[in-house]
Amino acid sequence: MAKIGPTSFKYILHAKFTADSLIDKPDVIGAVFGQTEGLLGEELDLREAQKNGKIGRINVESASAGGKTNGEITIPTSLGMAETALIGAAIETIDRIGPSKATVSVDKIEDVRISKREYIMTRAQQLLEEAMKVSEVDTTELLQKLYEEVRQKEFIEFGSEKLPAGPDIEDSEEIIVTEGRADVMNMLKHGFSNVIGMNGTNIPKTVIDLSRKKIVTLFVDGDRGGDMIISSFMQQGHVDFVAKAPNGTEVEELSKKEINQALRARVPVEDYDPSMKRESAAASSRKATPRAAVDVPPEIKEKVTPLINDIIGTRGAFLVNDKFEILGRIPYKGVEDAILNLENIHMLILDGLVTEEIAKAAEESEIKYVIGSRILGSSASVKLLSYDDIGYKYR
After folding, report:
1. Is-above-0.90 flag for pTM?
2. 3-class SS of residue 196
3. Strands, sheet with 215-220, edge to edge from the N-terminal-most edge strand
4. Are 15 and 5 in contact (CB under 8 A)?
5. Is there a contact between 345 and 371 (Cβ–Cβ < 8 Å)?
6. CATH number of 298-390
7. CATH topology classification for 11-113
8. Share of the chain above pLDDT 90, in %
9. Residues of CATH 3.40.140.20 domain(s) within the chain?
10. Is 112 in contact with 37 (CB distance < 8 Å)?
11. What secondary structure letter does DSSP report for 2?
12. Do the beta carbons of residue 2 and residue 68 sit within 8 Å?
C-alpha cells in the first residue's frame, strides 16, 4: 500500500465520464466549473470552494478510442459527506464537454480517513514485526498500546476546558455526556462519536452551554458517585435522559453490547426524578405531540428488527427498498440533505431521533417509512415509527 501523505481532505469524489468525440482535459475541467456554476449557491460554488481550500485540485484521466473519449474525474474535498454528495449530484448534470455530448456519473465517494487508518494499522504491524525480530517483546502489551493509539486518532479536546470528546460532539443534535476521559475513550472505541466527558464531579461551563442547545443523555457509572453527578447536573445544566452503567460497574469498563443496553434503558429526566418537570431548551424546541398507539404489520416488525440491531451504535442510517434490502448506509449527521438527493427509497432506519427536519425531508423524497429511536417530528404522508412501535429489544 502506498504511503498516504498528510492532507486536510476528508473525501475524494470519483466520477466517470463519456464523450461522443475526442476532447482534451481542459474541456472536462471547463465543463465541471462552467456547468455547475450557480447550481448549489455561493457556499458550494466550485470556484469559490477551491479558492477557500474546501476542494483541492481537480484531476482528470482520459483515453480516446473509436472516436469517443472516456475517463475519470477525481475531486478531493474537506467538506462534509452531504456537501460532497451534493457536488457529486451537480456534476452529474453535465451534458456537454467541449463540443461533444457527454454523460457524467459518480462512481463513489471515498473516505480518505479510512485509507489513513488502514495505512496506520498496516505500517504499525510492520513496525511491530521488526521490533519483535530484534528483541523479546510483550506482544499483548504492544498490541494494546497500538489499539489505543489508533482509537485516539478520533479523540479531540473541546471547549475552553479542553474536555475529552468525540469528533461529532459539536455537530450532533443529540449528545452523550460521561464522567471522564476513560469513559470517552471506551465510547469512541465502540463507535460513539457524539460523546463528551466532564473530567470530574464539577460540571464544566462548556458542558452546561452545550446542554442548553442539544438533546442530552447523561451516562454515568453505576455507583453512588454517578447518582451525585446526576443530582449536580440537574441543578446546573439541562438534561433530557439519564442512563446508568450496571450496578458496581463503570462506563469505561463496558462492552459495546452493555453500552447499547444501558442507553436503550435510559429514562427521561422527569421519570428519573419526578421533581424535574422542566425540559431542556433543546427538548422543548423539538417537543412532539403525544402519539397514539401505532399498528405495525407483523412482516415489518420481523424484517426491520435485525436491521435496527445492525444500525444501533453506528450513528448512521440504512436506506431500504420495498423488499427490505439495504440500498446503502449514510451518516446520521446530514441525513436530511442526503435523502433529498436520492430516489426510490422505501424506508429509512436511523440510529437516532426522527426529527421534524428528517420527517419533512422524507416527505419530499416520498419515503414511506422512517424508523428511529424516538419520534420528535410529524408527517401526513410518511409513517414515522419508533423502536418501541416495532417492539424492538436489544439482542
Report:
1. no
2. strand
3. 156-158, 163-165, 195-197, 174-178, 215-220, 241-244, 267-268
4. no
5. no
6. 3.40.140.20
7. Alpha-Beta Plaits (3.30.70)
8. 32
9. 298-390
10. no
11. P
12. no
